[in-house]
Amino acid sequence: MTDNNKIVVIGLDAATLDLIRPWAAEGRLPVLDRLMKTGAYGELQSVANTNSAPAWTSFATGQNPGKHGIYYFDEPIPGTYSRRYLNGSFRKTRAVWDYLSAAGRRVGVINVPLSYPAEQVNGFMISGLDAPGIGKPGFSHPAGLIDDLSSRLGDYIIEPGLPGMIKAGKKREAVDRLMTTIAQRRIYAEHLMKNREWDVFIVVFTAVDLAQHFFWKDMDPGHPDHDPEQAEEFGDTIFRVYRELDATVGSLLKTAGKAHALLLSDHGGGANQRGAEFINSWLAANDFLAKAGKGRLKNGLFKGLDKAYRLFDRSFSREFKQKLADRLPGLRSKVESATCFKDIDWTATRAYGDGARDEIWINLKGREPGGIVEPGEEYENLRKEIIQGLLNCRDRGTGRPAVRRVSRREEIYHGPHLDNAPDLYIRWNTDIVLSGLDSGNKTEAAPPPLQSGGHRDNGIFLLSGPGVQPGRELSNAEIIDVTPTLLYLSGIDIPEDLDGKVLAEAFDTGFYDSRPPTYRNIETRALKRDTMDYSRKEADKVARSLKDMGYID
After folding, report:
1. N or C: which end of the chain has fewer CB within 10 A?
2. Is residue 354 within 8 Å of 344, Cβ to Cβ?
3. How far apart are CA 87 and CA 130, in angstroms?
4. How confident is the model at residue 327 (pLDDT cuts 50, 70, 90)?
């Protein structure tokens, strides 16, 4: 292997060995099966909250969210209970493409989440789903790249918009659109591989994540919302997506020629546990959260607004909703913010969630605008009380333990941006789909969500090429290990401040010993650039993309 050896990095968002192993063993995923037999592979531990925004950012930086500063696709606006959407300019540390570019390596990057605006890499970049549109400045580097590609290859699809089709009863069209998106991204990637110079090529496909979010119940006969009639037509949708991506990986590697291949996913997939939906109800039932205007006009207005918004969201086309958003910028974010915390009395609330993520925030004095919990002893005692209460929770339907673990933020993150993290993170019992939380006081019932699939801790890692041990199954691989391993393969120094390690067990002992990794005190703080806040109109478009990808409810 030489220092200029080419490396192809293919991201398969949410891919899981739980599905790949049996399908590969049956010969139904021949390319992935071959890569597992000729290379090293294993599960890849995701970030603590298994969300794609911090996970892909940890892949790109080799650091945990406490250092790179990204915990979700949005973050609280200081001094308010509102949130703002994030993009790549909010990342606080450098990415692997920065280190590669500085070392003279030519890089190509396509569709990595949280990569807008495109950076001035030594090569080319097409932004991910945090971009508000392909026509926006900064969507690609060089600036005219996306226009040239669109004229040659057809319109670029940032995301396919599945939820709107599924809500409208157009599941067949949703599946077709999903397959079209895979094909189009492959066409773009292969064109750039053939027509641009590169040493490291990175492309991310999000189709697996979408398929698992919206078609898991069709595949899984044990899911409580499984419908045999729907399963007859759509039960193989997830497999079809894996099969199409298996062929796509084979095509990309053939186009690349002689190169190392590195495949990964940011997290795994499984049934949606639904726990986040019940957090605020449980907090209220146990006197941690207070609801305002119970049974009164205010509560009725909020419920009416929430119901009207969801009816509107189901009833109108994506195109109509986007036109309305263009005419009334900021309307969606205002409505969603209002319905998210629709009836909370902040003057009597000590802890709260948002109904979408497995996290709890303490209503802390000096941080939240209406904070009532004193920092220090009161804060710590409250967290301890909530943790113990959650660990005692049972699923209302089965009576089984609902919670596997509750972690304080400092137990799972570290770094200068720890203060931006939520105060508690919950890991649910993944063996069941929750119907409610019961710890003496039962939570409210909720209708089945659109997303029957959710995320899991472990994604995938596959590496093949010269010096790699064939058929070696890895242990203890983490997503933060990918950047140092990529830098090692590229033959360049690794920054000492990275949290990840080189996955030495993937390589032949003789090869690794003859070429040990080298570390150096390299600056990891992000290159100086202005944070690019979205306009109201842009924020609405990003919100729609995230909603259509299943990342927000």
Report:
1. N
2. no
3. 5
4. very low
CB–CB of 382/350 below 8 Å? Answer: yes
Question: Which residues, including other chains, have CB under 8 Å from residue 135's CB and lie 6 or more apart?
Answer: none
Quick one: which of 28, 45, 35, 498 has its CA closest to 265? Answer: 45
Which domain does 33 fall in, by range? 7-271+454-493+515-548
Give me the phi and psi of 434, to 5 degrees please: -70, 145
Asked if 220 and 337 sit in the same domain, the reply is: no
Q: What is the CATH number of the domain that holds 125?
A: 3.40.720.10
pLDDT in tens, 420-477: 999 999 999 999 999 999 876 666 666 788 899 999 999 999 999 999 999 999 999 9
Same domain? 61 vs 206: yes
Q: How far apart are CA 228 and CA 217, in angstroms?
A: 10
Is there a single domain that holds both residue 223 and residue 357? no
**C-alpha of 341 from chain center:** 23
116 phi and psi, to 5 degrees? Answer: -105, 135
CB of 489 within 8 A of CB of 301?
A: no
d(CA 156, CA 51): 24
Q: Please state the rounded mean pLDDT for residues 305-331.
A: 48
Query: How far, in Å, are 23, 207, 261, 399, 453 from residue 42 at the CA level?
Result: 16, 21, 14, 34, 22
Are 236 and 364 contained in the same domain?
A: no
| Alpha carbon distances (Å) from 309 to 169, 182, 293, 304, 544 | 19, 31, 20, 8, 14
Given CA atoms 284, 288, 293, 299 in this order, what sign does their dihedral have?
negative
Q: Letter for the amino acid at 21?
A: R
Domain count, the chain: 2
Q: What single string gives the DSSP state of each residue in 349-407?
A: -SEE--SSSSEEEE-BTTTSTT--BPTTHHHHHHHHHHHHHHHT-EETTT-SB-EEEEE
Q: Phi and psi (nearest 5°) for 76?
A: -65, 140
Pair 42, 90 in one domain: yes
For 328, other C-beta atoms within 10 Å of its C-beta total 13
Q: What is the 3-state secondary structure (H, E, C) of 10-28?
A: EEECCCCHHHHHHHHHCCC
DSSP conformation letters of 171-203: HHHHHHHHHHHHHHHHHHHHHHHHHS--SEEEE
Q: What is the DSSP string of 427-453?
A: EE-TTS--S-EESSSBPPP-PPPS--E
In a domain, 86, yes or no: yes
Q: Three-state SS for 40?
A: strand
Angular region, 206: left φ>0, alpha ψ -120 to 50, beta rest: alpha
Based on the fold, state whether residues 47 and 60 are members of the same structural domain. Answer: yes
How do residues 521-541 score in pLDDT, each as one tens digit? 999 998 766 667 788 888 888
Q: What is the dihedral of CA 412, 414, 419, 424, to 10 degrees?
A: 10
